[in-house]
Structures are given as C-alpha cells and as structure tokens.
Request: fold
Amino acid sequence: MNGTGNGGRARTALAAVVFAAALGLAACGDATVESSEVTETTTATTTTSTSTETSTSSSVRTSPREADERDIVEPGATRAEEAPDGRQPLTEDDETFLDALIADGIDVQGTEDQLIAAGHIHCSGEDAVVVDAIAGQIVAQERTDGDEDEVTEAIANAAEAAYC
Reply:
C-alpha cells in the first residue's frame, strides 16, 4: 500500500474541490454590458394644474465605427490591436519545469500556472495537499495516462530539478 488510504483520497478530493472553487471564483471578473442601439428616454412631469409636460431625448451615434466598439474619450488614448493573454512570461526555470512534465507525458497546455504553483509549493514544503489536488485535477482532466501518484511524483521530480 502506498500510504494514501481513504483518508488521503478524501483529503485530496476535498483539496481538489476547494481548488476548483477558488479557480471558479477567480474566473468571475467584472462584466461590461453595451448596447449598440439608439436609446430613447421619455419623462413625464405633472404640475399642480392638470397639464402634463413630456420631453423626449435620444442619443445618436456620430462616429463611423463598428457597432461593438466603445468610444475612446481619453486624449491620447488608442485602441489596442490585440488583448494581452493575462499571463506572466515564463522564466527559464518555469520552462525547465514544464518541459520535464511534458517529458513525463503530462499535457500542460492551459494549466501552466497551476502546475508552476504546485512546483513552488512542493519546494516550500508548505502544503502537500495542494500538489496532490493539482495532480488529481490533471488525471481527472485526462491530461495524462498516469495515475494521481505518478503525476504527484512527476511534479515533485520536476520541481526538485527546476526550483528547489
């Protein structure tokens, strides 16, 4: 037996759920809702007499631009051609770490940040449950043919070579 009985699997499962929930919350960002239609506002005001005043205002687009583009109102501001991918550039150690995982048959595409974090956590000795949870995530997402213990060992070995 490898030392991870039902208690170890339960801890790993719990850590995976907590990790997945944290990722879900982190993925929830702010949202912008835009309308490309002309808006019309009607207001009615009553006075002490029985007459009613009604005013209508509408906004009309004055610039020839795409319907889904927002106006740039800051002087000197320009529209970016491409949105950044939001990732930090990888260090040489990160590349070494990820290359070792790829060599061990792990598909790292899209999970680089989580795997790199797991490698750093392994070297810090803080919480092995996080490394186990990420290994479980890799197996659950079918990013490897190995089992959870093999992925945990691959993360540990790659981290030892790259970060520790």
